[in-house]
Amino acid sequence: MTNNDVTIAGRLIGTAFEPFVIAEMSGNHNQSLDRALAIVDAAADAGAHAIKLQTYTADTMTLDVEGKGFTIDADDSLWKGRKLHDLYAEAHTPWDWHQAIFDRATQQGLIAFSSPFDDTAVDLLESLNTPAYKIASFEMTHLPLVRKVASTGKPLIISTGMATLGEIEQTVLTARQAGAKEIVLLKCTSTYPASPENTNLRTIPHLREAMDVQVGLSDHTMGVGASVAAVAFGATVIEKHFTLSRADGGVDSTFSLEPNELRQLVVETKRAWQAIGGVSYGPTGAQVDAIQYRRSIYLAENVDKGCRIDDRHIRVIRPGHGLAPKHFEELIGTTATRDLTKGEPAQWGMFAQLHPASSH
């Protein structure tokens, strides 16, 4: 373990451990508790390590009014023309579902936790004994909420989204001063979906060094490529939105993974982590036996003792049990010290009058 490793419900998070994969349910339950529970089951079956909810109501998020800013007007938004209050009413996870979802997760061996969006949400999650908290990217500058969450002393995962490095520093400092000892920052692009070109994974090692915390990726791109690449840059946590089927619709379905894709994400991020290793040259333990398939120098004909060696007598072939190919020219013009047999690997003791430079 290192000083900034994090433990959530007994699961260690750090570069020495396989990536911690979080399936984000968000609003993909489509206001059906049965579907929400089925999402938990599918996430567990796919091999995810955690299921994450979002804890809010439309009224804790915004006001039910008309006016600029209360209706989404961005042309490239999935939710263009929707009132914020209506959108949050559709997407929220009813608070009386939380216990059932947490219980199902426990039955399935999943860690369940949530993103609270106000103090009352934190109080609810505390009553459920949540093992960790997530601060959503749009809330990371909501320092009163950060203080409330950090004061629980539980591990805190924070998406950075649009935050500047200065804002991230302020949030991390606020969390630490309020009692947070275990913090993970997630590189996050706050567009839905996000494009690979706008993901900037090189930020991950820079953020880890700057803040001295574990860093992961909250990935809103399509597919699993960005997440796999993030692990190569040192990401220790991967969060992806998850649904049973994009065809079923829902507020986040467009950029959510389906079960087979989540399973692929778990497998491929683990493979990426396993492949990182360290700086290594020469044969590793698993490669030692393969050295025999290199080329080396062998006798290509029977040779009598005292015969002068020329390029008819020796060849560079596979396997690799003879002298290295670089010695081929040195052997030309030497004499055989004994009778040599076709197919013998060339060794120094077989030849006399070697060139001085070939001292052995």
TrEMBL record:
<dbReference type="Pfam" id="PF03102">
    <property type="entry name" value="NeuB"/>
</dbReference>
<dbReference type="InterPro" id="IPR013974">
    <property type="entry name" value="SAF"/>
</dbReference>
<dbReference type="InterPro" id="IPR051690">
    <property type="entry name" value="PseI-like"/>
</dbReference>
<dbReference type="InterPro" id="IPR006190">
    <property type="entry name" value="SAF_AFP_Neu5Ac"/>
</dbReference>
<keyword id="KW-0808">Transferase</keyword>
<dbReference type="InterPro" id="IPR036732">
    <property type="entry name" value="AFP_Neu5c_C_sf"/>
</dbReference>
<dbReference type="InterPro" id="IPR020030">
    <property type="entry name" value="Pseudaminic_synth_PseI"/>
</dbReference>
<dbReference type="InterPro" id="IPR013785">
    <property type="entry name" value="Aldolase_TIM"/>
</dbReference>
<dbReference type="InterPro" id="IPR057736">
    <property type="entry name" value="SAF_PseI/NeuA/NeuB"/>
</dbReference>
<dbReference type="GO" id="GO:0016051">
    <property type="term" value="P:carbohydrate biosynthetic process"/>
</dbReference>
<feature type="domain" description="AFP-like">
    <location>
        <begin position="296"/>
        <end position="354"/>
    </location>
</feature>
<dbReference type="Pfam" id="PF08666">
    <property type="entry name" value="SAF"/>
</dbReference>
<protein>
    <submittedName>
        <fullName>Pseudaminic acid synthase</fullName>
        <ecNumber>2.5.1.97</ecNumber>
    </submittedName>
</protein>
<dbReference type="InterPro" id="IPR013132">
    <property type="entry name" value="PseI/NeuA/B-like_N"/>
</dbReference>
<dbReference type="GO" id="GO:0047444">
    <property type="term" value="F:N-acylneuraminate-9-phosphate synthase activity"/>
</dbReference>
